[in-house]
Write a structure and sequence with these properties.
Oligomer: single chain
Largest sheet: 8 strands, mixed
Strand content: 15-25%
Bound molecules: adenosine-5'-diphosphate, magnesium ion
Order of helices and strands: HHHHHEEHEEEHHEEEHEEHEHHEHEHEEH
Length: 460
């Protein structure tokens, strides 16, 4: 019993929390029981039982609360602690190690780095001893020794001094950077390989309902279709094999499915690519080789009569797909002819988007390898193509010509076939992929047939 009293007394004296809890328990019980001797005795016994429990509970609570308040030190705080710690370790070493004392004159921290000063020019092996010594320090606060820099000589007043910078590395920042890079890589690899057009099985009616007047011209790299307000001309660039013709085929299918009855659709294919074989000879809406120039001439005259008000375009939209524009431009052999084509082309780019008083107008869709402004009659001609797409590898150079790369933009980089970047004027550049028409031949044939029945500009 007396031992218990002695223990309680010691706790009472040494632990202020215990003392506080004992007194408050005692006062509370005494008040409940009455102020006589029995009350006092029972209260002290009860308080002696209760106070340790209260003290333990409150100390656990304190620990929990304290734990929540601990926050990550900032990078600067870690650096400052590291510097203090490092100074202490090196000072102890310097005082106790004669070898070190004979060579090391002192050290400085500046520009967030350490420089060691030597009493003479240290030899190679002395330097590597120093490096080994630093390597052996069990570095703290997230920092680690990386290397010694270049030894250099400087003159401070009378004494010559040799110094070497010490390179440390912030492991926490480095780990964080590689973690972020790894996350970005994993995110990129989640990208779809290719996106077959699932829309293909749907009829125009369903497609129309889903797209609500917009065009799913492309998808993001996860395969989600993006609905684009298709109210302007499009330029599509990419080197050979990037997927330009495949893209034009997909857009052709889209336009053919979504356009209105009155709308018209033309394909200019100077190179006579085999992908357009379904159209050879059967459609007045398609032209290749030298015929391309004849169809162009008709289209331009039609545009002029709408633009000058001779005819009323009404709500009709005229879509003109030009595959490999450069070969068409270069097919005009004399400068005079070429300049005339470029003048007409630029004229149409500038003035055709919206004509008359209705919803009518032109949409030029131009595919070529490099959007050199000389193919558009100058940069302001090119500027009229407000939807821009670059596909495939080696697009860095081409991307500079067509994109305005803002801070929010995805940065264009080489991409696999059918993938690339797109920008709708005034919006950031985005990583995209083009839905892939797998049964291209079948699809093209069906479109060719339906276009053959459609009305075209009458032959003279
Ligand atoms: N969107 C796409 N997704 C996957 N593969 C494609 C896509 N577009 C085209 N391809 C494949 O790449 C090849 C080259 O494409 P193509 O459109 O002819 O390129 P370009 O016209 O730029 O030279 C095609 O034969 C086709 O198999
Ligand atoms: Mg092509």
């Amino acid at each position: 019993m007396s031992i218990i009293i002695v223990i309680i007394l010691i706790m009472f004296i040494t632990f202020p929390d215990f003392r506080k809890n004992w007194i408050s328990s005692y006062q509370w019980i005494e008040k409940e029981l009455g102020n006589d001797l029995l009350g006092k005795v029972v209260a002290s016994l009860a308080a002696t039982t209760i106070a340790p429990v209260l003290t333990i509970i409150s100390s656990i609570q304190n620990q929990l609360v304290n734990k929540q308040e601990v926050s990550e030190p900032t990078s600067q705080e870690r650096y400052d602690s590291f510097v203090n710690w490092f100074n202490a370790v090196l000072s102890v070493d310097l005082n106790s190690d004669e070898d070190l004392k004979s060579i090391l004159a002192g050290w400085n921290w500046f520009n967030n780095g350490l420089v060691l000063h030597f009493k003479y020019r240290p030899k190679e092996n002395e330097l590597s001893d120093i490096a080994e010594r630093l390597q052996s320090y069990n570095m703290n606060f997230g920092w680690a020794f990386r290397n010694l820099g270049e030894l250099y000589l400087h003159n401070f007043g009378t004494t010559s001094n040799w110094s070497v910078p010490v390179l440390f590395i912030d492991k926490i920042v480095e780990n964080e950077a590689s973690r972020v890079a790894e996350l970005a890589r994993v995110e990129r690899e989640k990208e779809l390989e290719s996106l077959p057009i699932s829309l293909l099985n749907r009829n125009s009616e369903t497609l129309r309902e889903q797209t609500k007047g917009k065009y799913p011209l492309w998808a993001n790299r996860k395969g989600n279709h993006q609905l684009i307000d298709f109210k302007s001309h499009i330029v599509l660039v990419g080197s050979t094999g990037a997927g330009k013709t495949g893209t034009l085929a997909y857009w052709l299918w889209l336009i053919n499915s979504l356009k209105n009855e009155v709308d018209e659709l033309y394909i200019l294919d100077y190179k006579r690519g085999k992908d357009w074989a379904s159209f050879y000879g059967i459609s007045s809406h398609y032209a290749s080789a030298e015929d391309t120039k004849i169809l162009w001439e008709k289209l331009y005259q039609q545009f002029k009569s709408y633009q000058t008000g001779v005819e009323n375009i009404g709500d009709k939209v005229v879509y003109i797909i030009i595959d490999e524009l450069a070969s068409l431009v270069e097919s005009y052999t004399t400068k005079k002819e070429r300049d005339e084509f470029l003048r007409q082309f630029k004229d149409m780019l500038r003035l055709s988007r919206s004509l008359g008083t209705g919803k009518g107008g032109y949409r030029l869709i131009v595919g070529l390898q490099q959007a050199d402004s000389s193919y558009f009659g100058g940069t302001e001609g090119r500027g009229n193509l407000s939807i821009r797409v670059a596909l495939g590898g080696n697009i860095a150079e081409g991307a500079r010509m067509i994109f305005e790369i803002t801070d929010e933009s995805d940065k264009p980089e080489s991409s696999p076939v059918g993938k690339g970047f797109a920008q709708v004027y005034g919006q950031p550049v985005q990583r995209i992929m083009i839905p892939y028409v797998k049964d291209r031949e079948q699809v093209m044939e069906a479109i060719a047939r339906s276009m053959d029945n459609a009305e075209a500009i009458p032959d003279d």
